[in-house]
Amino acid sequence: MITFFYVRHGTTKGNTEFRLIGNAESPLTETGIQNAEDAAKALIDIPFTHAFYSPLSRAKDTAKTVLKYHPPVKETPLEELIEWHFGKYEYLVHPTHREEVDSRLAKGDFSDVGGETRAGFHARIREGFREMLEELEDGETVLIGSHGFFYIEMLEAIFGKEVRDEYMKDKKSVCPVPNGGISVFEYDGEKFRMKQFAASPVGWNYAEAGK
């Protein structure tokens, strides 16, 4: 069994301005640094053996904040963990383009404006997990540092649409994953199993994770 702890990056300037941040850089704010510290404290007793993270600074810095409280482990920046590419909508203020952006999110297609389709993004996500699994052995405990839309689309790409739908039910935001939020799932050699959906790192307790 391989256990994964997925952490969304902390709050960025773009988040506070309601911008659509995909492949764009947006560094952590002071609040974002605190989100990362909160995740680090929540995960301080987890015996990580390997870490993979998006090379975008907000995800990398969050992951490294978590790792600074642990003995050194192998760290692998992985391009496949980068956020969905939104093409010309990158870093635009979402509320000012809400109708067109939400329509594209529903259809899962930014390809005609220089971005990715949902299908292409899912293929990239699956390739990333294939690469991770090639490096890992049974019994490992893994940190993943990545992004909000990545997490939502990952649920469908590797668990199935019903798991994505379960997470998104009753959610009012298109990207409800908490900054610094922690999710736990496992891979048993054949399939992935969700143990805990993304939740705020404040008050998070691994002993309570699982179904």
Any overview of this molecule?
By secondary structure, the protein is α/β, with parallel strands linked by helices. The protein has a single domain (2-204), classed as Phosphoglycerate mutase-like (Rossmann fold, 3-Layer(aba) Sandwich). Helix content is 36%, strand content 17%. It is built from 7 helices and 6 strands. The chain has helices at 13-16, 30-42, 57-67, 98-107, 118-135, 148-159, 161-168; strands at 2-8, 50-53, 74-77, 141-146, 182-187, 192-199. It has a 6-stranded mixed beta sheet. Helix 3 (57-67) links the parallel strand 2 (50-53) and strand 3 (74-77). Helix 2 crosses helix 3. The longest helix has 18 residues, at 118-135.
Summarize the structure.
The protein is α/β, with parallel strands linked by helices and about 210 residues long. It has helices at about 15, 30-40, 55-65, 100-105, 120-135, 150-160, 160-170; strands at about 1-10, 50-55, 75, 140-145, 180-185, 190-200. Helix 2 crosses helix 3.
